[in-house]
Specification:
Blueprint: H1 3-6, H2 9-28, H3 32-46, H4 51-62, H5 69-93, E1 97-98, E2 101-102, H6 104-115, H7 120-143, H8 150-179, H9 186-212, H10 217-244, H11 247-250, H12 256-259, H13 265-273, H14 293-305, H15 308-327, H16 334-349
Helix pairs in contact: 2-3, 2-5, 3-5, 4-5, 4-9, 4-16, 5-7, 5-9, 6-7, 8-9, 9-10, 10-15, 10-16, 13-15
Length: 352
Amino acid sequence: MIAELSSHRDPIVRALREIDLDLGPQLAEVNRWGDDLRARMLEFAGRGKLIRGALVAASAAAFGRPADRAVYTVAAAIELVQSFLLIHDDIMDEDALRRGAPALFEQYRRHAVEHGFRDERRFGESMAICAADVAILVVFAAIGSIDVEESVRVRLMSLLAREIAKVGVAQMADVANGHSPTPATEEEILAVYRFKTGRYTFSLPLMLGAILAGASSSTVDALCRWGELQGVVFQIRDDQLGIVGESDEIGKPAGSDIAADKQTLHRLVLCKVTAGTEWEDVCTFFGRDDLSPEEVRRVARALEATGARALLDRRISQLRSQAAREIASVELGDGARRLFDAIDAFNATRVV
């Protein structure tokens, strides 16, 4: 975790609990699943790294607004958005493990087994979809209640709605890429990176924080561009971790991205550079659900031996340089400059 962000973790967790205290009783009065959902959602959201929420608070502080209740409510809300997206993502990817624990649909599947419900997998997925949908609606209720000018609330909710809608369309492309008989092109992969990860993971929280602090429109626009580039770097590194990382590092089974045949730049570059070499066989491993640990390790070794990782490292350097040019136009104090430098360094080095 970036040191400049870690101090925001506990206040965000408290803000999540406050949202639950404000809105949770209204869910509980509907039926017994309201309380069940509250407990599971708080645990699920609080188990994450809370990076996006911390970026909201850090961005607000960088532009002159110390983190207060309104800032932390928005920070907690973006973490509920993250939960909403991850819950759906796990169902689509059939990943039963998330953040080192059972995914939400798997939790409900186990509930069905324990209590003798029929069609337990369908039950688990259906309940998780409902839970995620409730979470995203709670987000807008929470932001709609913060103590800021009405124009600011409207701007925050409008921005959030637009950006999450783009995530949904990018996810559709990601799903289609995974099911299509034709491998995704570099342009298609990068579009997913930009709109499914880049803008949502960095641009959106930084923009939300800056808006809360009253930053200028030109500053907010520059943060959008900078965050998008940093998000692409983040996703490239995340994909690398999905190949070389162990289960305890990535919070899901090692090699699951290979088995799922995730259409990533790593896969694309690796299959190009291994053609006609002793490593050519590794491209046949993608999309297989019976991978052995040794085959997973062979893919990781191929990244190094063929120079695929070095190629992607150079791409990352180019993206970082472009991002540096974008942020150079923004007036930042020394503390804020250190924050953005720390984010850049974290993204570039997060995979060993």
